[in-house]
Write a structure and sequence with these properties.
Radius of gyration: 20 Å
Order of helices and strands: HEHEEEEHHHHHEEHHEEHEEH
Number of domains: 2
Structural class: alpha/beta
CATH superfamily of the largest domain: inorganic pyrophosphatase (n-terminal core)
Largest sheet: 6 strands, mixed
Strand content: 15-25%
CATH class of the largest domain: Alpha Beta
Length: 326
């Protein structure tokens, strides 16, 4: 089935002279690497076509990968093919003009709760969206082209979304496709240096935040990064959101959560879990995502306790009915 979908997508790409590529809001390495990687492949393969990457926000953390194209007037979309990557639902598409195109293609690896698009290729077992784009390239490598920069974009997404190839969604195919990109001449030392370097204020925040982590009765670890904390350490949105990783190594805490104040008064929730799923919790609170890595949105601080009670009850049940967890 996926081969037929890939053939249909390639045929649509061939039919259009104007292609606009977009992704989800609050971008991560996977969606930025995937969109930039696909654009690079299409630009190299079809130099006569107009290929654009258009969104309404960007990532400071991944600014080293380069920028994107400016937004266009509505009329510009009328004869365009729009391809949206790594975005489960239309409300999370960064380019709000996505629906003005003549046709829409969705390529994604999240659970397909809210299908959309004239063509939808979703494989939720993949470790990353970039793995799917590399697979797409590999399937048609006799006609598609890629260079070391395009490979770098895609490898970046594979590395970051798989937790440096640690997550259980990583397969032998994942590593073989990553190896295919490495063979294109990626400067891995440069890439990992850019991914790992932190500003001094980020390190200060991490040191402070470790002391702010709390754990529920049954082992849900959590941190609340409120506006005051963000201002104190001059945090970007991405700096604050990265705090979800601070609690991942607490023994017995199989679910960990970060609550981050947004400028509009809502609270961003980042949920992670080990051995058991947490996406159902995210879905109950206006979100969703992968089984063990998802997000949600709260409308007030009062909802934090309610979400934590739900997560704590789920973890309590899991521990009571399973053995062998850490």
């Amino acid at each position: 089935m996926s081969l037929e979908l890939k053939k249909r997508i390639l045929q649509k790409i061939k039919e259009y002279n104007k292609i606009i590529i977009s992704r989800h809001v609050r971008p991560d390495g996977d969606c930025i690497g995937g969109t930039k990687g696909l654009k690079e492949i299409l630009t190299l393969t079809y130099p006569e076509k107009e290929i654009y990457l258009v969104n309404e926000d960007y990532s400071e953390y991944l600014a080293f990968l380069g920028g994107e194209d400016a937004q266009f007037e509505d009329e510009f979309y009328s004869d365009a093919l729009v391809i949206v990557l790594d975005t489960a639902s239309t409300d999370r598409i960064s380019n709000k003009k996505y629906n003005l195109g003549k046709e829409l293609i969705k390529i994604d690896h999240h659970i397909d709760i809210k299908p959309y698009g004239d063509i939808s290729w979703v494989e939720d077992w993949r470790s990353s969206l970039c793995e799917m784009i590399v697979d797409f390239y590999d399937t048609f490598s006799d006609e598609l082209k890629i260079n070391s920069m395009g490979a770098t974009y895609l490898y970046t997404g594979m590395v970051t979304d798989s937790g440096r190839f640690r997550h259980n969604t990583v397969t032998g195919t994942t590593l073989r496709l990553a190896g295919l990109m490495l063979d294109k001449g990626i400067n891995t030392e440069w890439l990992h240096a850019n991914l790992k370097m932190e500003e001094y204020n980020q390190l200060q925040f991490k040191a402070y935040a470790l002391g702010q982590i709390k754990v529920t009765e049954n082992g849900v670890a959590y941190i609340y990064v409120d506006k005051e904390m963000q201002e104190k350490f001059n945090l970007s949105r991405e700096d604050a959101s990265a705090s979800v990783a601070f609690a991942e190594n607490i023994k017995g805490s199989l679910i960990w959560v970060a609550f981050i104040d947004n400028a509009d008064g809502t609270i961003r929730v980042r949920l992670r879990s080990r051995f058991l799923t947490c996406n159902d919790i995210g879905e109950n609170w206006r979100g969703g995502g992968h089984e063990c890595a998802c997000g949600a949105t709260l409308h007030s601080a009062d909802e934090i306790d309610k979400l934590l009670l739900e997560a704590d009850a789920k973890l309590k049940e899991y521990k009571a009915t399973h053995e062998g967890w850490l």
